[in-house]
Structure formats: structure tokens, C-alpha cells
Amino acid sequence: MKRSLLSLYAIALWAVPSTPYAQTPKLNSKTEALFAKMTIEEKVGQMAQVTLDVIGKGENRFSSFEPLVPDTAELNKAVVKYKLGSILNTANNRARTPQAWNQLIGQIQDAAINKTRLGIPVIFGIDAVHGTTYTAGATMFPQQINQAAARNRALVRKGAEITAYETRASSIPWNFSPVLDLGADPRFSRQFETFGEDPYLISELGKEMIKGYEGEDISHPEKVATSLKHFLGYMVPASGKDRTPVYLSEQALREYHLPAFKAAIDAGAHTVMINSGIINNIPVHANYEILTKLLKEELGFKGLVITDWGDIENLFTRDRIARDHKQAIELAINAGIDMSMVAYNYEVFCDNLIALVKEGRVKESRLNDAVRRILWVKQELGLFERPVTDISAYPKFGSDEFRRAAFESAAESITLLKNEKSVLPFTKGKKILVTGPNSHSMRTLNGGWTYSWQGEKVEEFASAYHTILEALQKEAGVDNVIHMPGVSYKMDGKYYEEFADRFDETVAAAREVDAIVLCIGENSYTETPGNLNDLYLSDLQTELALRLSATGKPVVVVLNEGRPRIISKFADKVQAIVQVYLPGNYGGDALADILFGDVNPSGKLPYTYPQFPNSMISYIHKPSEERETVEGVYNYSADFNPQFTFGHGLSYTTFTYSNLELSKPELAGSERLSVSVDVANTGNREGKEVVELYTSDLFATITPDVKRLRRFEKISLKPGEKRTVTFSLTKDDLSFIGLNGNPVVESGEFKILIGNQSKNFIYTR
Ligand code: BGC
Fold first, then answer.
1. Measured on CA atoms in the order 669, 671, 672, 676, is the torsion positive or negative?
2. DSSP bridge pairs for 483
3. What is the mean pLDDT of residues 328-356?
4. How much is the average pLDDT of 477-481?
5. Is ligand 1 within 6 A of the CB of residue 527?
6. I need a surface site. Which of 19, 287, 685, 739 has the fewest CB within 10 A?
7. pTM here?
8. CA–CA distance, 549 with 539 (Å, rounded to integer)
9. CA 601 / ligand 1 centre spacing (Å)
10. Active site residue 678
11. For position 635, what pLDDT does the model report?
């Protein structure tokens, strides 16, 4: 049996590990020559990253004056004296123009290249997680959760290509994206940053995103290096709250959390960011088994491993596994960290690490491994040749071509969850009431990580785009649209605070219209500020939904939310439910087109939408979680009872599945199984359908998952058109992680499910 990744002796508490760092990348001769000249101080400097405010002119390190200019003394101290290798983030938590970025990064690179002995450029990193977050005028895409709902590989790749282009146009070559965490907990404040709850879906879309960002060669002036995050097992804490303890078996870690990271590393990702949290009581930043044994040795990752924000300090100040800063640095660097996102106090990091090396508590060979990885990424990015770019070389920045891609991505993501008596699409000329706290807000359409960390500055930068109200006024004509908020968010309060805003008037206005578009959900947030105590949609919004539905007018609920807030108190009382998630700057336009039938919806839920707070079971679950409720006196309450299942999503047309065929009824060894199914558009509109293939392992030595997604393909069919879709499976698609931590495939009976079709087959090893 493998040594456990998660056992207590996983932390090399006082021992200095003697790993030979077999995966250290090869440098070219120029970089190798540079590396050979480096002192310990120069190596340590490369391993530190600070946030932009640290070198900005201002009163302190936490805020800068605007317009931002570097403070020459601070810049020289950080980059010349301490020889820091990297800077991240924007200053003052706000977006700036590409010209401002070019100039600023030019000044930083000038110090790094022309005023230091070795002239190594700084690598600048940013969170461009749904478009280039901190660049004004850049193209904002839907968040990752939408892109997972769209299930369209080509759109994910195109979006990443555009984001890479606009990020590099801002002189920034390193993107802290994609998020490859399993978004399996609906309570978690960052679920919207994920590709949802399925490991295969995350792996497939993750690979596309990496190819889009990195291309074949990251030295290309339109490409960036990616950072896979957050390695590993971040988003499933017991409490549902950010950066609180996760308890996870190694079997589950490898079965559900690891595959997407493995696929992305195999696809060539250059950097990895570590999980800020704690697994089985070990902070991941101090876990040698995860960082070195698993990531660097087993997965063969030869790129750069960076901490998350301040997470070395956290080993001391938050998690108390180190007695002081120095020991925290010793633990993390010896566990396998290459670069510390120190954020602010770089002197503490650098001075202590230099001392640790001199005292032999951190070996210079460990530093060499880290620095080679850092220099390798800089070399691969071509930073020595092109440390800064110029916006004039990027004519497509913010172009119509880019906007169209963002619109398409939004349109394909929007998911029609309910459409009773075909209340949608609306016919032209209908009089509608547009209401709810999300009806007139660009902030809520975008969510966190948009022009600022929590998304609170969106309105300042997004006035050129349409809120849901504005888009509907455009679509239906101003005279046909009445707007009343009913409930509003307190924009200067906590993100979740709201108030009744002409509540009774709104209900009265509902009586004057043909239909109600009720836009509800959440205000923007991310990370710890988005922690939640109650997953039910707020009381006030619930009351608004109940009051409006009681008018007897058709209610179309538009959900605009970063996680599935529970709506079971009114879901059966409204006629239609449309999930827009966080669709970005073109989400309002895309929704208007869907409500009025110009676009046929084709999104599918990327997670399970819970109906009850004590029944938050993912579609990936065990047979014991899906038992029939027994009639009569007993109610086991162990049934699988979501509001909507993973993969659910309606269309304005109908698709009919038939003729599921397997190439053979029995499969042996490494043979391939070909699976085909006919899909026909049996309605009267053109539409896109996501064809999903699931497998069920009927019996296994560990209790099997009820079903698992193995393949998907999005196709487009004209009315009356029929297409045969073929998938190919191998034994790897039937395997699971056994108790020894290795994949196993067992002989036995399996079921294939596509749409309403299913067929069994036998596999023999
Ligand atoms: C987040 C990361 C992000 C980093 C840098 C952290 O707080 O967890 O996802 O990349 O900040 O902004």
C-alpha cells in the first residue's frame, strides 16, 4: 500500500527531506549560465511575490494613491535590493487601462532588468478568471460555472484565447486560472469559479482552457502561463465555509479531486497554486506528500508551485503548526513550495529563508529546484526577450469579435430549468414587469473577480453594457416594460444585506402586466466574505416570489446567483425558472434573446440543485443515498431529492433518443467499446443538445457510485434532423480508485445510459 498522502507524518516537521528533485526542468544555456551565477540572496528573492500596493506610491503598503505610480524607493527596495522575482494583483483593488498597465509594468521591468546585477525580469501574475478582470475595457466572459453549463469545448477554448490576448496586451504574462476544484458543495462561496461537480467535465473543460491560454508556445505574445488552482481538495470543507477544515479520504481525493489536475498537468500547464486550506488537520502548504511526492514526483509536474495569498504566514498565524514565521517558511519550502505569494512582508520571508539555508534547515538543493522552476517559466514565457508589451500591437483588444464570443458563451450557458405550459418564449408585444434585486445590476451579472476582487466596482466600469432591465427594454420596447425593484441590495452594506424597495407597489404593478420577470439570487462576492449561514434564498426575496405568484400572473424566475440558493418554498408556484448563473457583461442581452425566443436555450446544470438544506447530495453518490421512500409508517428520508439534477436543462424544441447500440455485449481486457445513439430534433425549432453518456458499475468491491459521466458532446440539430452520435470507451472509463489508492477495474456488469436509453454489458479483465 502507498504511503498515505494525508497521514500525520506527511509533514516533514523537523526533518529536511532529501528528495533529488528529479523533475526539475531543463534550462537553456543562457538561463543556465544566469542560474550558475546566482547567490543565495538572489535565489531567495526570486522565490518571493508581493502585491502591487507594496511598490505603489501611497501612505502604506495596503493602499496606493490614484493614479497609481510606483514609489521609486519602495520599488528599488523590493526589486533591486531584495531582488524579488514576482509581483501580483492590481493596486487599490481596481481595474486600470491597458496603457496604464503597460507603463507600470515597464517601470517595474526597467528596475529588474537594468538596475540589478543579473537583470532577471519580474513575472507579473493576475486573476484573469473570466476575462481580464483588472483591465478596463477587456472582454468579460461568463464565470466558469456558466462555461460548464454551456458544455461547449470550443467556446471555452476561444474564451481562454481571448483572455490570454487581452491579459498579455496588459503586459501580464501569468494568469491564476483555471480553477479545477470540484464544485461539489452548493454552500461554498467559490462554487461559481469552478466547472461544477463532475470530475470528467472539469477535466475536459480544464484542458480546453489551458490550451486556449497557453497555446503551443507561451512565449507567443498572445499567450500566458496558467496556474491550476487550488491543489488539492479545496472546496469541500465540512462547514461549507472558505478555508476551514476538509476531512477527506485518500480514495476520494484521488477519485474525485485529482483527475482534473492530472489532465491539466499532462496538457502542459506551467504553474500550480496550492490549496489555502487544511486536509485531515494538515495545512496543504506544509504537506510534503502532496506537494513533492504527489505533485512533483508522481504527476511529474516540472513547473512552478506557488502558495496562495499569505499562506506560509498562515501556518504560524492561523493554523498554529509553526511557532514563528521562520518555522512556517521552513515547513512550506521543505514541503515543496517554490514561490511564496507573500503578499506584503517580503523582508520577513527573504531574511528568514536566507538564514534557514545558512543554518542548513533548508538545503540549497531545495532552493535550486525552486529557482530553476521559476526561471524556466520566465524563459518559456520569453520574458527575457519581451518583458513588456504595447497595447498598439493588440488591435483586437475589446473588439466586436471578442464581444460576440462572450455573448455566445453566455447564451449557451443559460439553463432553462422549468417551463410550464410553454410560458416561454414570450411573444412580441407582451407587457412585462421586470423586478427583483438582480433586475438592474451589472454587478450581479458578473459576480466577484470583475474589475475588483468582490465585484463591488463593476458599475463604475460596465456602464456600456446592458443590465437585464436594459436588455429587455431593448428587446421588447421601453413601453412594454415596467420596472420596479421590489427588493434591493444595500450596495454600501454587506454584500448580502437587502431591503424592501417599493415592495407593495411592485406587487400592485404585477396586476397590470401580462407576465412577470422576477430576477433574484445573490449580490456579488467571493472567498471568505461570501461565507453563508443559510442556503435558502433570502426571506425577503422568497416573500416577493410568493406575493407575485399569488397575483395569478405568469411568473418567470430568473436566477442570477453564484451558487444554488434553495428555492423550494416557491419553485412549484412559478411557471418558469431560468438559471443565468453569473453570465458576465453580455448576460442581460443573452437572457433577453432567450426569453423572447431569438436564442433557443441549451445550457445544462453543472451541479445538482438542492431542494432541502439537509439533502445536499451530488449526482455522484452511493446507492444508500438513493433509496426509495417506503410507503406507510416509515419514511427513511434517504431518497435522492434534488430540485433539479445535474445535466438538467430544457429547450424550446424536443430531442428524442433512440437506437442505443453497443459494438459488443461483452468487453475484455483493453478492447474498445463503441457506443452509438440516434438523437433527433422532434420539435419545430433548431436547437443544441448536450448528449451525455453515463456508466454505472452495478457491483464493486467498494460501494460504487450510482452513475458517472464519461463522455459528452454538444450537437446542433435542425427541426426534423437526426444524427447518430458515437462514443468510444475503454476499461479506464470503468475504473475506480481502490482502497490502496490505485485505479482498479473489476470484471462484472455495467450499464450505459444516454438520455432515456440504457443497455448493459459485461466486462472481463
Ligand atoms: C485566492 C486565489 C487567488 C489569489 C491571488 C487568493 O485569495 O484564493 O484564488 O489567485 O488570492 O489573488
1. negative
2. 434
3. 98
4. 98
5. yes
6. 739
7. 0.97
8. 15
9. 33
10. no
11. 62
Q: Is the dihedral of CA 194, 199, 202, 207 positive or negative?
A: positive
pLDDT for position 17: 46
Neighbours of 680 (CB within 10 A): 17
Which three-class secondary structure state does DSSP give residue 722?
strand
Percent of the chain at pLDDT > 70 equals 96
Q: What is the pLDDT of residue 493?
A: 81
Mean pLDDT for the stretch of residues 286-295: 98
CA distances from 80 to 110, 116, 495, 608 (A): 10, 6, 40, 51
Between 631 and 453, the more confident residue is 453
Q: Is the pLDDT of residue 543 over 50?
A: yes
Cα separation, 323 vs 285, in Å, equals 15
Q: Which atom of ligand 1 is nearest to the CA of 227?
A: 10
- Amino acid letter, 582: L
Between CA 42 and CA 747 the distance in angstroms is 56
Cβ 206 vs Cβ 161: under 8 Å: no
Q: Say yes or no to pLDDT of 634 above 80.
A: no
Q: Which residue has the cell 442581452?
A: 589
CA torsion angle 517 564 707 236 (round to 10): 170
3-state SS, one letter per residue, for 602-648: CCCCCCCECCCCCCCCCCCCCHHHCCCCCCCCCCCCCCCCCCECCCC
Ligand 1 close to Cβ of residue 102 (< 6 A) = no
Q: How many helices (H) and strands (E) does the chain have?
A: 21, 28
Q: Which of 51, 172, 189, 308 to mutate to test the pocket of ligand 1 (most atoms within 8 A of CB)?
A: 308
First and final C-alpha spacing in the chain: 22
Which of 497-506, 507-516, 527-536, 630-639 is least confident? 630-639
Pairing type for strands 86-88 and 123-126 reads parallel
What digits encode the pLDDT tens for the residues 392-439? 999 999 999 999 999 999 999 999 999 999 999 999 999 999 999 999
Half-sphere exposure of residue 14, counting CA atoms within 13 Å on the CB side? 1
Q: Is 93 in the pocket of ligand 1 (CB under 6 A)?
A: no
Pocket residue to mutate for ligand 1, from 273, 311, 525, most atoms within 8 A of Cβ: 273
- The residue from 127, 308, 369, 589 that is catalytic is 308
Question: What residues contact 494, with CB distance under 8 A and at least 6 apart?
Answer: none
